[in-house]
Amino acid sequence: MELDGPTATSPKVESKDGNLGSLEIIKHEEVKEDDTQEDLIKKLFDMVRDVTAEQLALKQLQITNTICRLKELQDQQPPKATFNPAIANSCRERLEGTLTYLTSELSAIPPAKWTTYKRKLLKFCESEPILTMTFAQRLYKVVDIIYLPEEMDAIPKEDFKRMHSVARICAAAAQALGPEHESEEALAEKWISAKAQDLEFLKKMFRSMRGIYKAFAPERTEMPWETQAGERDNGQACGNAQSL
Q1: Less Cβ crowding at N or C end of the chain, within 10 Å?
Q2: Is residue 225 part of a domain?
Q3: Cα–Cα distance measured from residue 233 to residue 22, given in angstroms and rounded to the nearest whole number
Q4: Looking at the domain assignment, is residue 205 inside a domain?
Q5: Is 185 exposed, middle or buried (0-12, 13-18, 19+ CB in 10 A)?
Q6: In terms of domain of life, where is this protein from (predicted)?
Q7: 20 forms bridges with which residues in the sheet?
Q8: pLDDT (tens digit, 9 = 90+) per residue, 96-144?
Q9: DSSP per-residue codes, 155-182
Q10: Rounded Cα–Cα distance for residues 49 and 28 (Å)
Q11: Domain residues for 101?
C-alpha cells in the first residue's frame, strides 16, 4: 500500500521530557522473519495508532513492508493437481450443491470475477491430492483462489462487507470439497470469526488514516489508496476491451 502525500522533512516532535527530536530517530519495531500474522497485525496497529500526518508519512515504507510480509505468509502453493474423474464428479456435486445456498454471499462478488474463481475451483476438484487434504489444506487453496484476489480488489475500496461474504464462501467451499462425512463446522466458524476480527482491524486502520489525511489536507476528497484502486480498475477494463 503506497500512501501519497506531502514530503516530510525530518519533522520535530516533543518527547515526554519536553525535548525536541527528529522523527527519524524514533525507534520502530522491525519486521522479523519469525513474526506471526498476529504479531504483524499488532505492529501495524501500533504504527498507525495516534500518529500525526508527518509520522505516518515517515512510516510509509515500514507499513508497506509489514503488509507485504503478511502476504508472504499466505503465499504458499499446494502440489500441482492431476485429473481424477471420480474425485472430480463427487467434489463438483457437493460444491455445486453448497453454492446454491450462498446466493446472497455470491452476489457480493462481481460476476466476471466469480466466473474465474468457479472455474479454478472446479479444476481443483479434479486434483488427486484433494482426496487426502485436511480441511485446513483445502481452505488454504480456496483462499488462494478466491480470498486473496478479492482482498486486493475490495480492501483498497474499503468494501469490508464484501470481504465478510467472501470469507463465508471460502469456508463453505472448503467444507464442500472434503469427504462426504467430514464435519468441520466448528473449525470453519472459528476461521470466519478470525477473518472478521482482521477485517475489523483493517476497517479501523483505514478510518484512522482517512482522518489523518483529511486533517492534513482537507481539500482532498479521495484517498491515495482509492485513487490507486480506480487506476487499477481502469487498467483492467482497458485490457479486457483490447482482448475483445
Answers
A1: C
A2: no
A3: 39
A4: no
A5: exposed
A6: Eukaryota
A7: 14
A8: 999 999 999 999 999 999 999 999 999 998 888 888 899 999 999 999 9
A9: GGGT-HHHHHHHHHHHHHHHHHTS-TT-
A10: 13
A11: 85-198
From 239, 228, 1, select the one nearest 112 (Cα to Cα): 239
Mind giving me the DSSP string for 22-72? EGGG---PPP-TT--HHHHHHHHHHHHTT--HHHHHHTHHHHHHHHHHHHH
Task: Specify if 110 maps to a domain.
Answer: yes
- Please report where in the chains the cell 519469525 appears, as a residue: 34
Burial group, residue 52, by CB count within 10 angstroms (0-12, 13-18, 19+): middle
Q: Is residue 193 part of a domain?
A: yes
At 151, list the grid cell.
482482498
Structural domain total, the chain: 1
Grid cell in block for residue 39: 504479531
| Tens of pLDDT, residues 191-233 | 999 999 999 998 888 888 877 766 776 666 665 555 554 455 5
Alpha-carbon distance 222 to 213, whole Å?
A: 10
